[in-house]
C-alpha cells in the first residue's frame, strides 16, 4: 500500500512524496513492521492513513526552498504532517527577533520573556500540546484545543486564534 507524506528533500525543500507502507525504518519504534501492525489493527483509523488521505488534496506547500529551510531548521524534522507544516509555516511568516522556541518541546512564543510559570499578557504560542500536566495546569485553554494551533495568552489562559 502506498502512502503520502511531507518529506524534506535536500536542495529542494519539503515535498509531498509517496512511499510504501512498512518499507522504511520507523525511528520511534525501530522496526519496519510497526506501521504494518498498526494498519492491520486500526485500518483507515490509523493516523498515518488519515494523514495520507489528507495529503491527496493538500495544497499548502510553499515550494520555496529558503522558506522551507527555515521551517526545517526550526523543527529539525525530515517528515512533517500537514498541520505541523502549516503551524511551522505560520511561525516562519510571523516571527520577529522577539520570538523564542521552547527548550523542552517544539513550541514557539512571540516573546523571549517566557518562563515555565510566566507568559506575557497578549503573547502568542504555537504548539501541538495544550492543557497538560497532572491537572491540565500547563498552557490551559479557554476552549478545547487539540493539536497544532496558535493561541493568545490573556487573563492567565490561552485563547484559540487559529487551528492548523
Summarize the structure.
It is built from four helices and eight strands. The chain has 164 residues and is of the alpha+beta class. The chain has two domains: 2-85, no CATH class; 95-163, no CATH class.
Structure commentary:
With about 160 residues, the chain is α+β, with helices and mostly antiparallel strands. It has two domains: about 1-85, no CATH class; about 95-164, no CATH class. It contains four helices and eight strands. It has a five-stranded antiparallel sheet, covered by helices on one side. A three-stranded antiparallel sheet has the order 2-1-3. It is globular and about 50 Å long. The model has no long low-confidence stretch (mean pLDDT about 95).
Key features of this structure:
164 residues, alpha+beta, five-stranded antiparallel sheet, three-stranded antiparallel sheet
Any idea how many domains? 2
- Would you report the number of β strands? 8
Fraction in beta strands? 15-25%
What's the total helix number? Answer: 4
Distance between the termini: 27 Å
Reported for the largest beta sheet, the result is: 5 strands, antiparallel
Radius of gyration: 17 Å
What is the typical, i.e. mean, pLDDT?
94
Q: Could you outline the blueprint of secondary structure elements for this entry?
A:
Elements: E1 2-9, E2 13-20, H1 33-42, H2 47-55, H3 65-75, E3 79-80, H4 82-94, E4 100-101, E5 108-109, E6 124-127, E7 149-154, E8 157-163
Antiparallel strand pairs: 1-2, 1-3, 4-5, 5-6, 6-7, 7-8
Helix pairs in contact: 3-4
